[in-house]
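The following block was generated as part of the benchmark described in Methods. Ligand: flavin mononucleotide.
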Amino acid sequence: MLQIGRLKLLTPLILAPMSGITSFPFRILNRQFGCECCFLEMLNARSFNYMSKRSLEIVKSYEDEKPLGVQLLGSEAYYILKALDKLSGYAFDILDFNAACPRPKITRRGEGASLLRTPVKLHNLLKSMVKESFVPVTVKIRLGWDSVSKAVDIALKLEDSGIDAIFVHGRTQVQGYSGLVDYKQIKNIKDRIKIPLIASGDIFTPKLAKKMFDETGCDGVLVARGALGNPWIFKEIQNFLNTGEISNRPDVEEIKRTIKMHLDLFINFYGEKVGVIKFRKFYIWYSRGFIKVKPLRLEVSGINTKEEMIVLIEQLDRLA
Ligand SMILES: Cc1cc2nc3c(=O)[nH]c(=O)nc-3n(C[C@H](O)[C@H](O)[C@H](O)COP(=O)(O)O)c2cc1C
C-alpha cells in the first residue's frame, strides 16, 4: 500500500505525468491493464488561467476516473493559486508541482527543474499551495540542477513546506533523460525525509522496478517510458514484487488486439484525423520486439485513416 496524505493506494505504482502522452485515452487503456493511479499531462498554470484549448483538453476526464493526479507547471504564485482555484471544479486526488522538467524552453522561463536552483522560492510556492489545496500536495524534483547540487538539502527544504510526498527522478537537469539513474542519491534523500518518496527513472522492467525499491527504500515508483506501447508493465511489476515470478509476455494476437483497442480509444477521443496522427508514435512503440518492422515504421508516418492503420497493425507478424 502507498499513502499520500489521505489518498490510499493499493499498489505502489503510479503512471507518471508525461506531456504529450498521458492523455485521457492513454490513461483509460493503462487502467484497463491494472494501473491504479494516473497523472494527467502537465498543466501550465498560466495557460489554464486563460482556459486555452490545450489546457482544457488536458484536464478532460470522467468524474469516476480515479485516483487521478494533476501536475502544475509554473513559477508565479499568482497564476499557480488562480489555477488551483479553477481546479476546484474538477475531481482529482493529488496536486503535484513540477520542479523536474529539464527542457530549456521551460527552464529558461524559470520553471520546471530551474526552480531547484532557488529552493527557497520553490519552498514558498509549495507552502502556499499546501495552504490553499483541498487535496494532498506533492512535488516532483530531479537530483538538482547538476552533479554539484545538494539534493538532500533541497528535499529537506521542500518537505518543510508541508507537502505530503515527494517524487524524485534520479537524474539531474543536466542529464536530461540519459545517463545513469543515481540510486544512492535517491536513498540518501529517502533516509532523511519523513514523507513518502516515490522514485522515478528507468522503470522499464519488473526487475528494474524491484531494483529501485531494494536500493533506495522508496515507497513507490513512477512508471513512465516503460509504459509506452507496454500497458502490461503494471501487472508484471506487481506480480514480480508479490511473487518473484516473471510473467509471460503477451503474444502477437494479444498485442494486436491491444493496439487496436488503443487506436479506438484515441479515435473516440480525438476524432479519426487527429487520433490517427497522434497514434503513429504509439504504433512505433508497440512494434518494438517484432521482426522486420523498419519498413512498417517508415510507412506509419504517412498513415492518415483508421483503415490504413489497421492494415499496418495486421502486418506485425512475429516477435523476435
Ligand atoms: C515524453 C515524456 C514526457 C514527460 N513529461 C513529463 C511531465 O510533463 N512532467 C514530469 O514531471 N515529468 C515528465 N516526464 C518525465 C517522467 O515523468 C519520468 O520522470 C522520466 O521519464 C523518468 O522515468 P523513466 O526513465 O522510467 O522514463 C516525461 C517523460 C517523457 C518520456
